[in-house]
Request: fold
Amino acid sequence: MGTDDGSIFLTPGAGRRIALPDRGASATLKIVGSDTDGRLAVVESAPAPGAPGLAMHRHHRSDEALYVLEGTVTVRVGARTVSAPAGSFVFVPRETGHMFWNPGPGPARVLVLFAPAGVERFLEETAAAFAAAQGSPDPATLREIRTTYDTELMHDPT
Reply:
């Protein structure tokens, strides 16, 4: 809920939920760039147990921070891979390759912050592309979305 001074208060579970079927996850958009004049976006990610997550990637304009809320995720930043249980925090500077996934078997939730905002649009557009295709969209469409919203795969199989 927005206020006159620009502050935002959300109750537990609030935000816009989107499905990310290509990586076995869902996400809840807590705040997006249009809420913060482009300064910050916050997304709660719920990677499914055993799902691969987004491949190793980097952002050229945005820093990313991860705070594990529930469960344990595996995080790779550059050449370093760590197990990150609830309460763990990871900062990923722009231009740095990274990825995270839920190795399972239980649920996990990760609060992901992007500064400046913009990368959250990649999540929105990817979810919309999968919904419109009712399955897997054309790889060229996904590549265009990644390029538009500052997400470069470190190894692009398409």
